[in-house]
Amino acid sequence: MKRISIRKIVFVAIIVSACLSVFQIFSFNSRSPKPSKWKNIFIALNLRNNADLIPKMTDRFDNLISLLGHSKLFFSIFSNNNQDDTDLLIEHHFKPLLQQRGIAHKIVTNGTTCGGHTVPPKEMNRIEWLACVRNSAMEPFYNFVLSKQSDDTLVLFFNDIVFSPNDIVDLMETQNGDFDLACGLDFYYNFYDIWVTRGIDGKYFSAFPPFAMDFKSALGILKSVSPIVGSATDGVAVKCCWNGVAAIRGSKFLGENPISFRSEISKECNTIQSECKLFCEDLGNERKVFINPNVIVAYSEVFYWMNKLIRNFFIYSIFFISRIFEFRFNTTDGERMIVMQCEGETKTAISSVMFVLVVCITLIGLVWRYILKCK
Question: Over the stretch 30-89, which tens digit does the pLDDT of each residue have?
């Protein structure tokens, strides 16, 4: 029986991985969106020092507006404390787009918040300031939903991200729209929003695939990238997320106990908590919060495409198998978990670094030896 060389196996694996990535990107982006249940959509956006991002971001929003079809839209941009041309570019790019499209909007540049401040006062912590900035972007919402059915209203809250318009439509339809809060996954080099995101078991997420620290959720994320059973709108239940873009049921900002962004020192941990994590908690114990793993956003074009390309079943499976050690590690080390939960750990677990290094060194070694034929 003829022996198959390791070089051929590695080469085929790389080709299969690349094909899966390309298939994933084009198959999801080529779909026609279904009619949305959301009749009223409020888009909120905070920008600061984003001059390099705005031109392409405007084009993406132009495409998103087309995909949203007959939904009634309102666009709110709040920006202040900029040291670059962000204010100028908002006026030159966003304002003409919204005017040409006939979309109701409110654009505030060099705006004041937190009682009239344009920059954070010395006595104010960073999270308190960010909560004010987010609330300022939400101010027009209450007039927008006046006399409209709030159950048909969705808030799309964007950070300064690179995104696919099709992905945002998928985010809106996560779990067929049966959610209080739905998020994507945001990236720098790796998964970014570890400080806010908590799995259904209350544990933080890892920086590397499949991200969730509990086996069931990690399996759900792995399933989402499967070319056979994966779905663009299936969500993975979590306790909290934000991750660059959040779809929020509009009624949560209304009613007897309306939610807004706030700052608070945790009594249990004696540390400041993220305004987004507090937002999740204010949704209540019975909240329906989901991450849609198919929605990939990033904070630069390079990180966006890098994470789009490595997002496939082959690569995620390798990480998933390697994570068996990490599942065990974080289940048994209770004291370490408490510390990370309180401090909002933004560094990845030591075990994550270990398995990523091992996987990368192994793959590089195999490519070097068997593909490049170096000894």
Answer: 555 555 689 899 999 999 999 999 999 999 999 999 999 878 899 999 998 888 999 999
Give the architecture-level CATH label for domain 6-371: Alpha-Beta Complex (3.90)
pLDDT digits 0-9 by tens, 121-152: 888 888 899 999 999 999 999 888 754 556 78
Q: Tokens 């779990």 sit at which residue?
A: 175
175's tokens: 């779990």
Task: List, for residues 317-333, the tens digit of each pLDDT value.
Answer: 777 776 666 555 554 44
Please, are residues 148 and 241 in contact by the beta-carbon 8 Å criterion?
Answer: no
User: Tokens at residue 203, please?
Assistant: 């544990």
Report domain extents, the chain: 6-371
